[in-house]
Specification:
- The chain is an alpha+beta fold and about 250 residues long.
- It has 2 domains: about 10-145, Jelly Rolls (Sandwich), CATH 2.60.120.10; about 155-240, Jelly Rolls (Sandwich), CATH 2.60.120.
- The protein has helices spanning about 10-15, 25-30, 115-125, 125-150, 155-170, 185-195, 200-210, 225-235, and strands at about 35-40, 45, 55-60, 65-70, 75-80, 100-105, 105-115, 180, 215, 220-225.
- The strands form 3 sheets. It has a 4-stranded antiparallel beta sheet. Strands 1-7-3 form a 3-stranded antiparallel beta sheet. A 3-stranded antiparallel beta sheet has the order 8-10-9.
Length: about 250
């Protein structure tokens, strides 16, 4: 099917078709979904814990994070989301949010009503399978983060996160030829996600730069030595379930 790349859901068709075959009729049905495009400013939330959602969010541009809000107001970040991600697909069947979703940068999202997605899946089982696969991959990434918190040292946790974000952005076509990609999250957010202190994260960044594995400045990550970084982080990309050429 010839896609109109300016359509807000063209990226969704491309994302779902990347790993599973989606027939032309299903692609047309995705493009015909009702959608509301919404812009978010940095450091604003799309969904708060406890909100009841009537739509799923598809990230068109920018960076978002899923977080657990603790009793004293601290945020434990559980996932980072980039363009092409669907952060709240589980809301199709669990509409009351237990986690929040917020913007780190200027973000544009496409909101797709739950009812329209349910109808789409009833009539197009290939789309249902592709969306189910997205849920399973999200669970696989969550498992890997838990393993990192329990078994990896602080330096390896941060290096592993850099590997994951690099590979995911590469698959989405967001990595420059010289290995540069966006990293618009603060050291404090990295620390929250990895169970470290900001001081520890700063020290690890300094060490990774000194070892000439990465460069990090002006909200940009540059991978200088991918082979060494992967080995140091003990990064095995199989949990991302991507095509081999993408990793």
């Amino acid at each position: 099917m010839q896609l109109t790349t300016t359509h807000p859901l063209a990226m969704l068709v491309a994302r779902l078709s990347r790993n599973m075959p989606i027939c032309d009729a299903a692609q047309r049905a995705i493009m015909a979904l009702p959608v509301t495009v919404q812009a978010l400013e940095p450091n604003t939330d799309l969904i708060h814990p406890g909100d009841r959602s009537e739509s799923c969010c598809f990230v068109l541009s920018g960076w978002m994070g899923r977080f657990k809000l603790m009793q004293k107001g601290e945020r434990q970040f559980l996932a980072f989301h980039i363009a092409g991600d669907i952060p709240d697909l589980q809301s199709l069947h669990l509409p009351t949010a237990d986690l929040g979703i917020g913007a780190f940068t200027q973000v544009t999202v496409a909101l797709i009503p739950h009812g329209a997605l349910h109808d789409l899946m009833v009539h197009h089982h290939d789309v249902m399978a592709a969306l189910w696969r997205e849920v399973l991959v999200t669970a696989s990434i969550t498992n890997e983060w838990m393993i990192g918190l329990g078994r990896r040292s602080g330096p390896r946790r941060l290096a592993h996160l850099f590997c994951e974000l690099y590979v995911r952005q590469k698959a989405a076509g967001l990595v420059k030829e010289d290995g540069r990609c966006a990293l618009p999250i603060t050291q404090s957010v990295m620390a929250d996600a990895l169970g470290l202190t900001p001081v520890h994260v700063n020290r690890i960044l300094r060490d990774l730069r000194a070892e000439k594995m990465i460069q990090h400045r002006q909200r940009t990550l540059t991978i200088l030595d991918w082979a060494r970084l992967k080995v140091f982080a003990e990064f095995d990309p199989r949990y991302l379930h991507m095509e081999p050429q993408l990793v």
